[in-house]
Write a structure and sequence with these properties.
Blueprint lengths: L2 E4 L7 H20 L22 E6 L6 E2 L5 E5 L2 H4 L9 H8 L4 E5 L7 E4 L13 H19 L11 H24 L5 E4 H14 L1 E7 L13 H12 L4 E5 L6 H5 L5 H17 L8 E6 L4 H14 L5 E9 L12 H4 L1 H16 L5 E9 L13 H14 L4 E5 L18 H12 E6 L1 E7 L12 E8 L11 E7 L5 E5 L8 E8 L10 E3 L2 E2 L14 E3 L5 E3 L3 E7 L10
Length: 586
């Protein structure tokens, strides 16, 4: 006998009951229209496996109203201050790098990370004095090239963009490779050296954000302390005044993972002191007319374990009204993992839901409705793992993060990192997009901020107790992005992660039945499988056409009523055209 079982829990309502009835009728019609199912005899004459023998997922979406409405900049980016130290900050004017960042706009660009609390601002225009060391044999010529490039950029009006010579980039990669060993050693030892951000550095950073259509969020050093342990704001005030004089539109935050200060710097900042520090920063912003209404984000707590939760709770109690959004961070695993299977564990994917629930509980107990940002997220900490966290395999974690965060109402997710050292970035040091970049680009093009409830049921010949399909088949739905001119308002986008090692068939039911579908199937390119650093879309490899031109993201049209067949270990986006969903019309 055929059985129906629920794969995702949904709130009970009249519409839900009607939908389940319709699904039941649909299943009954399938059963009654075919003869009584018989198990095929072994070696049964080469006959094809019957329809009822294969797993089939019945999928519908509630198109009446969204369950969440997110920030237009939901998928956003992060840059680590280490780019000052390894020299890559000087190359943010690269035309190709700006183009790649612009592809993910609109978005926030958070300049921060572990090294936020080691940043020191100096209002100097000196081009080389505060630059990190480089190999002696080319340092002088390298510095001269940077100076000449800066002089040429200063002559430009508006966005300042450059096409750096290949030799100059090659020398920079050599320098960055040596510095990366230093940075990684700091990361693993949790002992960091100071970084100077000059006025020139800030100009280059803001130019990059402005040219790419990103809104800059700048982290201030919270570890500059007075003898009484209060925050010393003198350096921050100097930075605020300089930025205001340049009319830089910036949002602000203070510190990074304050719950970890004891292990990093041997001193602690409790929630009461942290709340006072943020209150002081708000006062400073109000004293600088240009930033009197600037957004302030915080406290940027670490993973919500005991200490972080206690700090967040105390902070919200004393300064919840001071910040415009509450920020925290989440990393899935140790960067020293060595197996691709670690990126595919369903229990690992589900840890984010548990962490979000903890954070929302604290925030809503003090400031119901306050926006919550996932202020720094990546597949792995400690710089990630080469040939793992920069490959197709990491995409399952990344897309699932976006889906889970959206369903639970996280307003913004900041990806660590857009471009820097290590292996968790979206763009490599040759300015080539990695798999997670292409996933992010497709997401930006197709997925809007309105989140819809997905309703799923499974039809199986022999359901096995304890083995639930939804664990390895993740399905999320949003209204299609209004910014995509290829689709009219009212369209919806479904994105699916298939972690099964077998193909899964999905039948659109209910309101989605007999609708034309555009498929965007993202698969690894080449023979490396899950270790691939390139991807294909509907069978065509994704490559930049040139430094300023993206490839066309061509959909494959599935005829109305056709079953969606998800290949094993793949990711797919499906746009339901002309459905005229009420939740997505306005």
């Amino acid at each position: 006998a055929t059985q129906i079982f629920a794969i995702s829990e949904i709130p009970s309502s009249s519409s839900s009951r009607l939908w389940l009835v319709s699904v039941a009728l649909m299943v009954q019609s399938v059963i009654s229209s075919s003869s009584t199912y018989q198990r095929p005899a072994p070696g049964g004459g080469g006959k094809r496996t019957g329809f009822m023998e294969r797993t089939l997922i019945l999928l519908d979406v509630n198109t009446r109203s969204p369950v969440q409405v997110l920030n237009d900049n939901f998928l956003s980016l992060q840059l680590d201050p280490s780019i000052i130290k390894d020299g890559w900050l000087d190359f943010l004017s690269s035309k190709r790098l700006v183009t790649l960042a612009r592809g993910l706009s609109p978005a926030y660009l958070r300049f921060g990370g572990k090294r936020t609390d080691f940043l020191h601002f100096h209002n100097l225009k000196n081009l080389a004095k505060f630059r990190g060391p480089g190999p002696d044999y080319y340092l002088k010529n390298y510095e001269d090239d940077i100076v000449r490039s800066d002089i040429a950029l200063d002559k430009q009006r508006g966005c300042k963009l450059a096409n750096h010579p290949d030799m100059m980039l090659e020398l920079q990669r050599e320098k960055a490779a040596q510095m990366q060993l230093v940075l990684l050693k700091e990361q693993l030892s949790n002992l960091y050296s100071n970084i100077t951000i000059t006025a020139r550095s800030l100009d280059k950073l803001y130019n990059f954000a402005e040219c790419a259509g990103l809104h800059l969020v700048l982290g201030l050093n919270a570890q500059q302390r007075n003898p009484d342990s209060s925050w010393n704001s003198s350096s921050a005030l100097s930075l605020l005044k300089y930025s205001a004089g340049k009319k830089y539109n910036i949002s602000w935050e203070l510190g990074n993972e304050p719950n970890g200060y004891r292990s990093m710097m041997g001193q602690t900042v409790n929630s009461t002191q942290l709340a006072q520090d943020y209150t002081l920063l708000r006062t400073l912003l109000q004293s600088v007319r240009y930033y009197s209404r600037a957004h302030l984000l915080g406290p940027n707590a670490g993973r919500p374990r005991k200490n972080a939760i206690l700090l967040l709770d105390g902070f919200m109690k004393n300064a919840g009204s001071v910040v415009d959004a509450v920020t925290w961070q989440h990393y899935y695993m140790d960067g020293r993992v060595t197996k691709v299977e670690d990126f595919l564990k369903t229990r690992l994917l589900d840890t984010l839901t548990e962490q979000i629930t903890k954070v929302l509980k604290v925030v809503n107990s003090h400031a119901p409705g306050k926006k919550v940002w996932l202020g720094g997220v990546g597949p792995a900490w400690a710089g990630g793992t080469n040939n793992l966290s920069d490959t197709y395999a990491a995409g399952f974690l990344w897309l699932n993060t976006l889906g889970m965060a959206a369903m639970q109402g996280i307003d913004v997710v900041l990806r660590h990192s857009f471009f820097d050292y290590g292996y968790t970035h979206l763009v490599d040091q040759h300015f080539n997009p990695l798999p997670d970049y292409w996933l992010s680009l497709v997401f930006k093009r197709l997925v809007g901020p309105r989140v819809l409830a997905v309703r799923v049921a499974g039809l199986q010949r022999k359901p096995r107790p304890g083995r639930v399909i939804r664990d390895k088949l993740r399905i999320y739905a949003h209204c299609t992005s209004f910014k995509n001119r290829n689709y009219v308002r009212g369209s919806i986008t479904i994105y699916i992660i298939n972690l099964h090692r077998s193909r899964k068939k999905i039948k659109l039911a209910g309101t989605l039945r007999n609708m034309t579908v555009h498929q965007y199937l993202v698969q690894p390119y080449g023979t490396d499988g899950l270790h691939a650093r390139s991807v294909q879309l509907n069978g065509e490899r994704l490559l930049m056409v040139d430094n300023e031109t993206f490839p066309e993201l061509k959909p494959r049209t599935l005829r109305a009523g056709r079953t969606i067949a998800m290949p094993p270990m793949t990711i797919g986006f499906y746009v339901i055209k002309n459905i005229n969903a009420y939740a997505c019309r306005k």
